[in-house]
Amino acid sequence: MHQIKSNLYPCAHCSGVGTCKNGTNEFSCAVCVKEHELKGKEFAGLPCGICGGIGQAEPRTERINKRMPAILGFTVVFLLMFGVFFSAILKSPYFSEVLAFSGTLIGTVLGFYYSDRSKAT
């Protein structure tokens, strides 16, 4: 399994308690009511919609930074496969060059994600 480190900080929305009291008269705020898909305006004691009620949240930038390499890798692979496919359909005179470039780059990306070294970090 992957060893994923998560830096959790006290949730600023619920002050680390896990229950939202940011609305008027210490009711839950409109954002948390909307998150739980409830009808009405005044609810008390709803779990915080930002941290999920655990009182600790991971910053959005850290979540994005953890996901971006994988998303970029998959995007590059699919764009290159798409390019090879259309190069073959259109009978491009440069098909051999496109295939050599794409094959090397796709192999490098897949080799990185399926190697033991990338799983150790």
Could you please describe the fold and organization of this structure?
With 121 residues, this protein is mainly α. It is 50% helix and 3% strand. The protein is built from four helices and two strands, in the order E-H-E-H-H-H. It has helices spanning 30-35, 60-89, 95-114, 116-120; strands at 9-10, 56-57. The protein has a two-stranded antiparallel ribbon with strand order 1-2. The longest helix has 30 residues, at 60-89. The chain is elongated, with a radius of gyration of 23 Å. The model has no long low-confidence stretch (mean pLDDT 84).
Number of strands: 2
Give the proportion of residues in helices.
40-55%
Report the structural category.
mainly alpha
Task: Record the strand order, biggest sheet.
Answer: 1-2
Largest sheet composition: 2 strands, antiparallel
Overall residue-averaged pLDDT value: 84
Radius of gyration using CA atoms only:
23 Å
Distance between the termini: 11 Å
Coarse morphology: elongated
Low-confidence spans: pLDDT under 50, at least 5 residues? none
Total helical segments: 4
Topology pattern, helix = H, strand = E: EHEHHH
Work out the strand percent. Answer: under 5%
